[in-house]
Amino acid sequence: MRILSIETSCDETALALVDAKGTEAPSFKVHANLVSSQIPIHRPFGGVVPHLAKREHLKNLPLLLEELARHDVKTTKRLVAPEDYIVAMMKRVDAVAVTVGPGLEPALWTGINAAQDLARRFGKPLIGANHLEGHLYSFLLAAPTRTTKKKTIINLPAIGLIISGGHTMLLEMSSLTSWKKIGETRDDAVGEAFDKVARMLSLPYPGGPEIEQAAKQGNPAAIAFPRPMLDQQNFDFSFSGLKTAVLYHIKDLETHANPDTPFILDEAVRNDIAASFQTAVIETIIAKTMRAARQYHARSIIIGGGVAANKTLRSIFEKACEQEKLIFITPARDAITDNAAMIATAAYMNTLTHTTRPIVAQSNLNL
Ligand code: KG4
Ligand code: ZN
After folding, report:
1. Contacts of 231 (CB under 8 A, 6+ apart)
2. Is residue 85's pLDDT more than 70?
3. Angle made by CA atoms 135, 137, 138, in degrees to the nearest 5
4. 223 Cα: distance to centroid of ligand 2 (angstroms)
């Protein structure tokens, strides 16, 4: 099944062309995974501005569609108009998939309208996909991996961990298509906490990669920030207290600074805060995930979502999994942050379970 997928839930306009096959062991071949990032547009505002996101998606969608078609159609006959390439590409597409939620409503609608238009014009079925399932299944795009050519082995049951800008949740997965949510954040998502702490440290949006960079030069044991909810036996998270602890720490430094000169965080101090904050987050997430793995007798841990791009988190996770003889599964690097190939995986997995969704923007769609 060849899927053309569209993702516009936040600040990335993304289109992909993916072949999917198999039922017991689904596998995917990514022909193209195009992402047009709007980060430079939103950066001056310190976060995503919905109406600007919508404007940019509307501008980028036709450009990406043409790029995707040109990439796909290799022909000796010179096609003249962009439309000719699109027609040729669409002949071989079996279904169009689009993110219907969660996300920013005006942004979601741009993708939905574009997908509806394509599906209608070329008589293709349209599949509405859940962005969170996209993050959950994005590891399937890594099989076989580029380096080992080996298929990703997944032993079940597994614990799924989604850590993104909008969500933080733990799932107990008895199979790839049946799971139960066992915990989630009670306030800020982990990516959101990275972004907010970055802003406190005058680092640009998105904050996750910036904090990771700053943390490399800092001492992770410099400040004993709290490890939220670790003493509680549930699988929920809370990051707003940790974020406030960082804020109070900075305010405290400001109070004790020389009142005659404007307060500026010294770079070394900033790096220590970044490293200490990152460590508190990573320790909390890993401790809760490992505890869930023990309780549910999991044999694998699957992580997904933008924060999974954090190399420090991945390497500590990998070691913890090695120690507990668990298989650690992460998406390929280019499939971690928002992209459309992951939406094709979610759409395909939904066809296996005959799950359908209304094709309307659902900003609060959950798992
Ligand atoms: O999954 P994603 O691309 O979009 C959402 O669905 O939210 O995740 C974006 C989030 C942002 O909060 C960003 O700061 C965070 O992922 N992020 C990171 C890193 N790269 C992206 N957080 C920590 N370390 C990173 N290297
Ligand atoms: Zn996402």
Report:
1. none
2. yes
3. 65
4. 30
